[in-house]
């Protein structure tokens, strides 16, 4: 099950569900899940990847954090700044699509490591953005839902065209 993971389509049911907390000890190897997520994130040149994006119903995500990789199990926001940043975001579930999204510029978070240890950290900049994006995945929130009305409409039209293009690319052996 975990050996042959791949990104699920954008309409996969797990992408629109709130995932339950991950229970330690689990019937699945948490380190193995984290390693496979990291492997796929790097393969697709992402900066974050949630378990539900590969069809796993676990509240786990990985993200690139300089100079390391951070694995977050049962992540949650503890505090968010009033300062927001409007930046373009992409998503591995929507290859080629970028949408301007407002997110808190500074956050305080709590999550568990792969061993179950609880960690509290403060993130800013890109790390804060990635954490919020991946947490949204686990809460069944699509990043386009965070866009303004006009930006969302434009993104949805563009995504329809990109899906057709991506399907053609796969048919002829290009892309994923």
Strand content: 25-35%
Summarize the helix and strand pattern as letters.
Answer: HEEEEEEEHH
Mean pLDDT: 92
Shape: globular
Question: Helix count, per DSSP?
Answer: 3
Q: Tell me the number of strands.
A: 7
User: Which residues sit in consecutive blocks of at least 5 with pLDDT less than 50?
Assistant: none
Distance between termini? 19 Å
- Strand order, main sheet: write it out: 1-2-3-6-7
Give a short summary of the structure.
The protein is α+β, with helices and mostly antiparallel strands.
Keywords, separated by commas or semicolons:
176 residues, alpha+beta, 5-stranded antiparallel β-sheet, two-stranded antiparallel ribbon
List the helices and strands and how they pair.
Elements: H1 30-43, E1 48-50, E2 60-65, E3 68-80, E4 84-89, E5 99-104, E6 106-112, E7 118-124, H2 125-138, H3 149-171
Antiparallel strand pairs: 1-2, 2-3, 3-6, 4-5, 6-7
Give a written overview of the molecule.
- This protein is an alpha+beta fold.
- Helix content is 29%, strand content 27%.
- It has helices spanning 30-43, 125-138, 149-171; strands at 48-50, 60-65, 68-80, 84-89, 99-104, 106-112, 118-124.
- The strands form 2 sheets. Strands 1-2-3-6-7 form a 5-stranded antiparallel sheet. It has a two-stranded antiparallel sheet with strand order 4-5.
- It is globular, with a radius of gyration of 16 Å.
- The two termini are 19 Å apart.
- The model has no long low-confidence stretch (mean pLDDT 92).
